[in-house]
Write a structure and sequence with these properties.
Order of helices and strands: EEEEEHEEEEHEEH
Radius of gyration: 16 Å
CATH superfamily: CheA-289, Domain 4
Largest sheet: 6 strands, mixed
Shape: globular
CATH class: Mainly Beta
CATH topology: OB fold (Dihydrolipoamide Acetyltransferase, E2P)
Helix content: 10-25%
Structural class: alpha+beta
Number of strands: 11
Number of domains: 1
Length: 161
């Protein structure tokens, strides 16, 4: 289901957005940064917070709350930027709080029921992990990025059309 051999577990960076918990496969995460010096890029998509310089590399910063259509809410003091290696350049995702890096076994993961996931969500949600009394939505950050790029192109077309 999520590319595991039977009985194996993989590590996920678990983070919070609002009251919900999400996870990125740790193999896709380059590093976790504190919130700092994000430069706004005017005319970019609403969910793109801007760019930052990370040791000489330009990193595009995506606000996950905006990307997922969640209420803005107060900016938590624990906010972090989870940096992943994308095809062209690293990309950072702003999350409310990084909770832990956890081993999740294939037995703990279920596919998202079709009647719950919208067409778009089902493309980037790889499963839902049941952890004690919590549910963690496992996401492929590169798929979120692909869909974000597609949405930005559509948005520009409709404005210019």
């Amino acid at each position: 289901m999520i590319g595991m051999i039977d009985g194996q577990s993989r590590q996920f960076v678990i983070f919070r957005l609002g009251k919900e918990e999400y996870g990125f496969d740790v193999t896709k995460v380059r590093e976790i940064q504190s919130m700092e010096n994000i430069t706004v890029v005017h005319g970019s998509a609403e969910y793109i917070e801007g760019v930052m310089n990370l040791r000489g590399k330009l990193v595009t910063i995506i606000n996950m709350r905006k990307r997922f259509g969640l209420e803005a809410g107060d900016k938590p003091t624990e906010s972090k930027i989870v940096v992943v290696d994308a095809t062209d350049a690293p990309v950072g995702f702003i999350v409310d709080e990084v909770i832990e890096v956890a081993h999740i076994s294939e037995a703990e993961v279920e596919k998202v029921p079709g009647h719950i996931a919208s067409k778009i969500e089902s493309e980037y949600v790889v499963g839902i992990a049941k952890r004690e009394d919590r549910l963690v939505t496992l996401i492929d950050p590169l798929k979120v990025l692909e869909l974000s790029c597609d949405a930005a192109v559509e948005s520009r077309r409709s404005k210019n059309g």
